[in-house]
Specification:
Layout (H helix, E strand, L loop, with lengths): L15 E2 L3 E7 L4 E2 L3 E3 L2 E6 L5 E7 L5 E7 L2 E2 L12 E4 L4 E4 L1 E3 L4 E9 L4 H4 L8 E8 L13 E3 L13 H4 L17 E10 L3 E2 L11 E9 H6 L26
Parallel strand pairs: 5-17, 14-16
Antiparallel strand pairs: 1-2, 2-3, 2-6, 4-5, 6-10, 7-8, 7-9, 7-13, 9-14, 11-12, 12-15, 13-17
Length: 257
């Protein structure tokens, strides 16, 4: 009997698939990609206070890309209020880069972790207005004939003046809770990204000439507590979410839903 094989395109759950770059968040304790839920044109990821996470950037193309990473409206490399014209990480063709924290130097980063709004790095530096969103401005490189040396964690620091601040969309601001659900508006319940322990995470500066002034692509993921996303109707009630690591040998077999 002849077997027919079908090729299909698979996008992992929780990954924002852009044209040039994929963006996802990974829970450090379980090493799992956090799931995402589409709502009103945005993707939302549930987070849990105290959990450390990593921003995962994957270059889908065969050319170098510059990824200007904004976490809560703050540039994750320079600490400036984020602008698309600032420096960021350079990804080699088809490279996947794991950004584990705020860059403190060419040798260290301070770990990303989910935390309450008042404890977030953005709020502690007087910039709480854009907490809850992680975005990447993607730039293609001006073609050259230079050779590249593949090493991890490269970043371009050719920052230009720019004071543009990101803001939450009107549709996000206008969300209301389900009838009978707990109010999701308390400041202490809003989730942000903290400035955690320092860790060894080497990088080096490289030159990168952008092909255009405007980004070739903007990708972003919004995040908040699971309970808030559930109350707002972003996570369907039929989609339970657990942070526990999967088990190869669970104790018993459950009934199907």
């Amino acid at each position: 009997m002849k077997m027919h094989y079908l090729a299909c395109l698979f996008i992992a759950p929780g990954v924002y698939a852009g044209n040039w770059l994929d963006l996802s968040l990974s829970d450090d304790a379980s090493a799992r990609t956090l799931p995402s839920y589409p709502h009103a044109g945005s993707e939302y990821v549930p987070g849990q206070p105290g959990r450390e996470f990593t921003v995962v950037l994957s270059n889908r193309s065969g050319e170098r890309l510059l990824a200007v990473l904004s976490v809560d409206g703050v540039n994750a490399v320079s600490g400036e209020t984020a602008s698309t014209q600032q420096g960021g990480y350079v990804l080699q063709p088809y490279e996947t880069l794991r950004v584990t924290g705020w860059r403190k130097s060419l040798q260290e980063t301070a770990k990303f972790y989910f935390t309450a709004l008042p404890d977030s790095y953005a709020a502690r530096t007087g910039r709480p207005n854009n907490v809850g969103v992680i975005g990447v401005a993607v730039f293609r490189e001006q073609p050259t004939f230079s050779q590249w040396n593949p090493e991890p964690h490269r970043y371009s620091h050719n920052s230009q003046a720019g004071n543009a601040q990101s803001s939450r969309s009107k549709e996000s601001d206008s969300l209301t809770a389900r009838p009978g659900a707990a109010s999701p508006s308390a400041e202490s319940d809003v989730l942000g990204t903290g400035h955690g322990q320092r860790q060894y995470d080497p990088a080096k500066q490289v030159a990168f000439e952008r092909r255009s002034y405007q980004p070739d692509e903007l990708v972003e993921l919004r995040y908040d507590r699971y309970e808030r996303l559930l109350a707002l109707g972003i996570i369907p009630e039929s989609y339970p979410y657990r942070y526990q690591a999967p088990q190869a040998f669970p104790e018993f077999v459950p009934d199907p839903r």
